[in-house]
Amino acid sequence: MEFSEWYSDILEKAGIYDLRYPIKGCGVYLPYGFKIRRYSFEILRKLLDETGHDETLFPMLIPENLLAKEGEHIKGFEDEVFWVTHGGKTPLEVKLALRPTSETTMYYMMKQWIKVHTDLPLKLYQVVNTFRYETKHTRPLIRLREIMSFKEAHTAHATKKECDAQIEEALTLYKAFFDEIGVPYVISKRPEWDKFPGADYTMAFDTIYPDGKTMQIGTVHNLGQNFAKTFELEFETPDGEKDFVYQTCYGISDRAIASLISVHGDEKGLVIPVDVAPIQIVLIPLLFKGKEEIVMDKIKELNNTLKSEFRVHLDDRDIRPGRKYNDWELKGVPLRIELGPRDIENGHALIVRRDTGEKITVEYSNILEEVEKIVSMYKENLKLKAEEKVKSFITVLDFENDVNSLSEKVKAKLLENKGIILIPFNESIYNEEFEELIDASVLGLTTYEGKEYISVARTY
Amino acid sequence: MEFSEWYSDILEKAGIYDLRYPIKGCGVYLPYGFKIRRYSFEILRKLLDETGHDETLFPMLIPENLLAKEGEHIKGFEDEVFWVTHGGKTPLEVKLALRPTSETTMYYMMKQWIKVHTDLPLKLYQVVNTFRYETKHTRPLIRLREIMSFKEAHTAHATKKECDAQIEEALTLYKAFFDEIGVPYVISKRPEWDKFPGADYTMAFDTIYPDGKTMQIGTVHNLGQNFAKTFELEFETPDGEKDFVYQTCYGISDRAIASLISVHGDEKGLVIPVDVAPIQIVLIPLLFKGKEEIVMDKIKELNNTLKSEFRVHLDDRDIRPGRKYNDWELKGVPLRIELGPRDIENGHALIVRRDTGEKITVEYSNILEEVEKIVSMYKENLKLKAEEKVKSFITVLDFENDVNSLSEKVKAKLLENKGIILIPFNESIYNEEFEELIDASVLGLTTYEGKEYISVARTY
């Protein structure tokens, strides 16, 4: 099955996201999908809270004159902004944009809060919906008109040094986040022509989808003093001088969810990383005539034992076990535990791993410990598999002075192996003309195994 | 100080909400305010999750034809809907409403999901931003153009009986929620002319603000089959017949936060209920020359002891203790613990309650237990005080056949005691004409101490 078909199919069948809403690029997070989102963003929140970021909530509407304040920024967004022009039947005096992102909103407010160096650093974030009038093909959780979950962090600092250090902190946080949700990544410094509108430079996380195309899943922008000058974010330094703050911003969206689904899934359905799984363990009783009560009693006991540490679901529906297996494999539940009369007689239980399909018979008396062990193997394996997949998608080419010959080789490799092609850095090909020649995107400058490359790929 | 002045003042000074945004009725949840919101809505989420409600996320934009599908419903909202008319520079073919509430969105989708009685009950909720083009005076967290937090639950049932039972469940949940965040309430069945547009009837929670005006803080609507017929929510019953589902919906907004602030605050600032306090205990070291290290070591130890159960903050700023006391009293931190050299010598610590101002010397060796005891007294006291306040605002009048004389008495009482006036039910005054006569609102039918009354009040 083609990846994109598999993807649409699994979103519907596993109850992740329903796109049958009468506006293109707008859909519904279904209960199961919402739980994955909730657990994922809780991990992100925890990482941010622990490093001194404060959660806030800013307005969704932006007056036109405020959005237009930063020239480059508005140029980057003006074709894709939704505009509110009426309240009831009354035309508004100033039209209002649905936030495409919140720099202008947040920096307008920061102006009220930042007066002196002791007000800094300021490290804020919010998790909100944002909007883009996409005219291109939309794709659920990947290219939406309503991005339902956008975690955007915005920081302000007294010195360039602290600002640069914040970029490092953001990269570290995002690495930790993607590691925890099991999504592998390649980090690149985006080329000038593809950086965030208004930024000094942009660092980006890309992952690779099963079809070999890359997906941008996180960005970290060093804004320098650009926005600060526009928004007059001036403060008094310890020496009593005036200076503009240095700023960073960084964001992660629903694409994190799309990616953890896409990277791990297989032909049977989802394979969910343990930490974000709505159900971590499903219990299936194997009922035989006359033994129903013994089995149900035992499996309820097991449910209680495991509940203290895991999100467990006891599937006691009156359908045959085989159908239950299929249902929960489709939904990507990490572990399934089967318990029948013979298991109980022998003091055993059967654990089945979703990632490898492996069946493991364990001592019932020791089950919590056994489950913990298998859960940590599952985590380790998912991480390894994801990293291997990404590695298998990376090809290193030699640089050649003959641009035409080089670009032919790149194109051939992109057709053959897909994924990311790395070429040792050379200024002569680091430009948009090269993108046109290879009919693919320059992701930017990527450090890989200690060396610096230009990375190129077909992107989503 | 006037209540409304106190309220605006405290939002700013305590860092709850900043309204200096260039759109009327739109503002920013600041870090401290956001935490109160987060803890409050977590309580609500937990209550909903435990009773089988599933969290979801639906689109924010509603096509005009979908919003207009239910005639009464759209009539109730059409004057206050914000309309998106353009994407970039392109006029949209169908204009899009910013959701004022999500009945139409959700029921359009329910049509895709409900086919047969086994698909029921369906109990969904979401916590989202909603929008009203308010032309009246706006007020932070009370009357907003962007309602930043709206928890809306929507359920569908196979029978009227189950639907009615769901109304009871919703009332029970909301009671538990307001009890936990310490906001007292009076429940009324709203009169016909004030029910939710499209509902069979509306039950509402009102609390009373310090100025004697009531604030609607939660509503529970029995929609019967009204929306189901419009949205064709038909299903196959166990007998193979066709029927329309029975529906309820119920919502709680930022007003819950506004109310817990307003009901408990005093002239020194906020008094926050323990369960939603961003900081539950603040530790203040009393430093004397030469004893700094002893005190700091001990108070760090105390911090570690208490952290296991409470949200604790150690205030080690280099300012005098008096200023710290003021800061944390303003922010409404439930308990303050002071520790100085003499306390350490005597094996004591001093605990100060924010609600009563009481100072309690406790044995340091037993401090966790002592704190737990005081915390539970604090909770109990806040609940009692809030209930007493509401009771003191309730006046019962006798019914009189002479409507003019009765309305004069109501008006006098409203001037004198403010709050809610209860009048034994009589059909002759249960109408909008009576509202005009008394220049106040009929809240509806209220059961109070076992009897049924018509309740009237000045409302926000």
Provide an overview of this structure.
Two copies of one chain form a homodimer. With 460 residues, chain A is of the alpha+beta class. The first copy, chain A, has three domains: 3-264, BirA Bifunctional Protein, domain 2 (2-Layer Sandwich); 279-374, Rossmann fold; 394-457, Translation Initiation Factor IF3. In chain A, 37% of the residues lie in helices and 28% in strands. Chain A has 14 helices and 23 strands. The first copy, chain A, has helices spanning 3-13, 31-50, 64-67, 71-77, 103-113, 160-180, 226-230, 255-264, 292-307, 321-330, 341-346, 367-392, 403-416, 432-438; strands at residues 17-18, 28-29, 54-55, 61-63, 82-87, 90-98, 122-131, 146-157, 186-189, 201-208, 214-224, 234-236, 242-244, 246-253, 281-285, 312-314, 335-339, 348-353, 359-363, 394-396, 420-424, 441-448, 451-457. Chain A has an eleven-stranded mixed beta sheet with strand order 3-7-8-14-11-10-9-22-23-21-20. In chain A, strands 16-15-17-18-19 form a five-stranded mixed beta sheet, with helices on both faces. Chain A has a three-stranded antiparallel beta sheet with strand order 4-6-5. In chain A, α2 packs antiparallel against α6. The longest helix of chain A has 26 residues, at 367-392. The first copy, chain A, is globular, with a radius of gyration of 25 Å. In chain A, 48% of the residues are buried. β5 of chain A pairs antiparallel with β5 (82-87) of chain B. Chains A, B: Homodimer. Chains A, B: GO terms for molecular function: ATP binding; proline-tRNA ligase activity. Chains A, B: This is Proline--tRNA ligase. Chains A, B: Its EC number is 6.1.1.15. Chains A, B: It is found in: Cytoplasm.
